[in-house]
Amino acid sequence: VAAQNCRKRKLNAILTLEEDVHNLQTQKESLKKEHSQCSRSISQMKQKLNNLYRDIFSRLRDDQGRPINPCQYVIHCSREGTILIIPKHLVKSEQKQGNKKEQKEK
């Protein structure tokens, strides 16, 4: 009887584990679909942002009326809502300083 009970518990444990595996596989497939949808959404947003960026730069002009080169400038949006056109070389040096500050704080 003890051996029979042991086999029964073992069988129940196996069935529970198989059910858990099935549930996890289902969850994994669901997460894969969600990940795929998120990736597509991010891709679309990047494309829209890129189009907006190009559209903005196509309309911008310097003091002499010449188009601003998007390879030399970036659009910077501050937390306060102000929008600035900044030369790229200034942004890179600011990012380096920001990274150094973050590393020091850690």
TrEMBL record:
Protein name according to UniProt: NF2L3 factor
Q: Which InterPro entries match?
A: bZIP, bZIP_sf, NFE2-like
Question: What are the protein's GO molecular function terms?
Answer: DNA-binding transcription factor activity, RNA polymerase II-specific; RNA polymerase II cis-regulatory region sequence-specific DNA binding
Q: Which PANTHER family does the annotation name?
A: NUCLEAR FACTOR ERYTHROID 2-RELATED FACTOR (PTHR24411), NUCLEAR FACTOR ERYTHROID 2-RELATED FACTOR 3 (PTHR24411:SF8)
Q: Which SUPFAM superfamilies match?
A: Leucine zipper domain (SSF57959)
Q: Which organism is it from?
A: Ceuthmochares aereus
Q: Which Pfam families match?
A: bZIP_1
Listed A to Z, the keywords are: Coiled coil
Which residues are in coiled coils?
Answer: 7-48
Q: Which GO terms describe its cellular component?
A: nucleus
**Domain BZIP: from-to ranges:** 2-49
Identify the domain of life. Eukaryota
